[in-house]
Amino acid sequence: MSTTYTKPLPQPTALSTPFWEGARQAQIRVQKCHACGHTQHPPRPLCGECWSDNLQWMSCSGKGQVFSYTVCRWPTIASFKSDAPYVIAIVELPEGVRLTTNIVDCPLDRIRIGLEVQAVFEKATDDVTLIKFRPAV
Amino acid sequence: MSLKGAAAITGYAELPSTKSPNGRTSLDIVAQLARETVADAGFEKRHIDGLLTTTSGESLFWPTVLGEMLGLDLRYFDTVELGGASSAGMVWRAAAAIQAGLCNNVLCMAAGVAAGGASNYGALTPKSREEFDSPYGVAQPNSGYALIAQRHMYEFGTTSEQMAKIAVDQRTSALKNPNAMFNKEPLTIDKVMNSPMVLDPLHLFEIVSRCTGGAALLVSGRDFAKRGRNPPVWLLGAGEAGTHMSIAQRKNFTTSWVKDSAATAYKMAGVDATQMDFVQVYDCYTITVLVSLEDLGFCKKGDGGRLVAERDLTFGGDLPCNTNGGQLSVGQAGSAGGMGHVVEAVRQLMGRGGERQISKANIGIAHGNGGVMGDQVTLVLANQ
């Protein structure tokens, strides 16, 4: 699998490694500020609200809601051409963060804003698992 | 401290957009633009003591490279990196530098050479975003604007036909613009709706095409402005607002930072939207124009679809908008695109619009937008 995966892969940094490590363990991990309670994703070196560096990783429930979406029918990234049409979405988690992701296992006529979704963890390579979502019911 | 009347635009130049570079480089485009702009203003090389440009992707020290090539003796030079808002951003920075006494005449230039195929990760995906966007087949900026459009339709019932009308009206104006890349065939709403769907709900004809081109203008202090060749176009107000890089970080997708940049600019100028004779607003996509018109105050939030459907946006219409055809018809020369909007505002205010001259053009807006509605600069310009 890892030798044939041709799509872009994340290059985790010191900052983002806990997020990607979480994905491998089927968890959505985001930063929570212990000074002001703000949650954020992608990870930052400080809290984007209060600038505290007292950030801890927390695991999310895996539930979410489609905040907006688009169906990509004409991909500009070459390795995605055979996937079209595919759904790109911003999913809002009850924990207060949004993820840019794909909605999978969902007929195109079912996708809509507000759709309740559940995280699925797709192993791209031995090292990388991507967090995607499918309809909750 | 206000920039109102601190400086004026005294001259401009613009290259016709071409699909392929035809052997041209950013350097020789800039060389031509510099010469033509200064000549248009009625000044000479020795009068130029400031230079602003936007990122070229070609070189570090880009303003220095250009200054050396042009043989200029500079007192103020810099890069303004706000994507499509860079050009509008240059104008108020130039005025501020002039007001501060640093310099007298600032050459503001933007050139773009179409770089062949699309980047693998999208033109606007910075390194820090690749990690969280690219694995999902997200290439900015297309995806981001589609997400905004979808949300606008959901919240306000905006339709694809309404958005298409923007491209149609702009094309009508483009038919009178020899510099536009698409200036032969009129568009219809049906033609836009029948063009291929790229990213729902954005059709191909609602999306800019890359081209080679460039534009430039000269910002001059009061004394110079009064003795130039052209009627000076005064900066009455300027406002800048941001930031987000990823649209996911913007709490409200459908109300943009334009609201904030516009408020600052109107306040400085002491005017409001109802007094504007025209609006030249950054148009990378139809939805960009729609959201910007709302946030610039031409209607209330959510009524943008109805506004563009009911009003005539052509140069002869009751709400002239992107009277050169906008980037949707002119083409997008990289970040040089935003300069076309400012130049068109200046052209109209100088009365040099030719066949597409707006009958009453005394005060108007040039608005630049960068990223995915992340960087906003509003300028209020007037000819008196």
Quick synopsis:
The complex is a heterodimer of chains A (137) and B (384). Chain A is mainly beta and 137 residues long.
Provide the spatial order of strands within the biggest beta sheet of chain B.
Answer: 3-2-4-7-1-8-11-10-9
Main sheet attributes: strand count, strand direction, barrel closure of chain A? 5 strands, antiparallel
The number of helical segments of chain A is 1
Encode the helix/strand succession of chain A as letters. Answer: HEEEEEEEE
Poorly predicted parts of chain B: none
- Compute the number of helices of chain B: 13
Q: Count structural domains of chain B.
A: 1
Low-confidence sequence ranges of chain A: none
Categorize the overall geometry of chain B: globular
The computed structural class of chain A is mainly beta
Name the chain pair whose interface involves the most residues.
Answer: A-B, 36 and 37 residues
Helix content of chain B: 25-40%
Number of strands of chain A: 8
Which key phrases capture this entry?
heterodimer, A: mainly beta, five-stranded antiparallel beta sheet, three-stranded antiparallel beta sheet, 1 helix, 8 strands, 6% helix, B: 384 residues, alpha/beta, Peroxisomal Thiolase, Chain A, domain 1, nine-stranded mixed beta sheet, 35% helix
